[in-house]
Structures are given as structure tokens and as C-alpha cells.
Amino acid sequence: xxxxxxRFETMVAGIRTETVRRLFMxxxxxxxxxxxxxVSKNVATSGGGDASVKKQPMKKVKKPGRxxxxxxxxxxPNGLPMKYKDCCGRGE
Length: 92
Hints:
Elements: H1 2-25, H2 31-45
């Protein structure tokens, strides 16, 4: 047990040493982000097309859950709303 524990401690110390070594060798580059922003602006302005036409963002439509009431509004004979899985969601 003692030998296993010593090996584990050695492994943890090695991981710490390697992590610190890699962190100190890492270099942060801020120029890349600035270049990308300027490139994207240049591409947008040099499209050559009609600049006044903007694309509308797509709206994300949330799919109803299986046990949620069906969005079509269908009711059961007892007056309660149908579950999505029993109505429009059948077969999915």
C-alpha cells in the first residue's frame, strides 16, 4: 500500500509540474482577434451587393416536450388538452 501511495504522490507532483510548465510557456495573442474583426468588417463592406438589405436572424422555434399540451389545441373528450406525444408528435 505504501509503495502505491508513493507512486500516486509522484504522479500528482509530475502533473502539477507539467501543468505549471505549460502555463508559463503559453503565449497570449491579442493580435489574432483584432485581425479577425477587421477582416470581417472588410468582407461585410466589400460585398459589392446592396448594403441596405440585411438578413433577418432566424428565430429558434422550441419543440414541445412529449408530455406538453399539443400546440394545435386539440382536446380530449373529457375537455383536457391532448399531449403532444398522443397528437401531432405521434411517430417521432
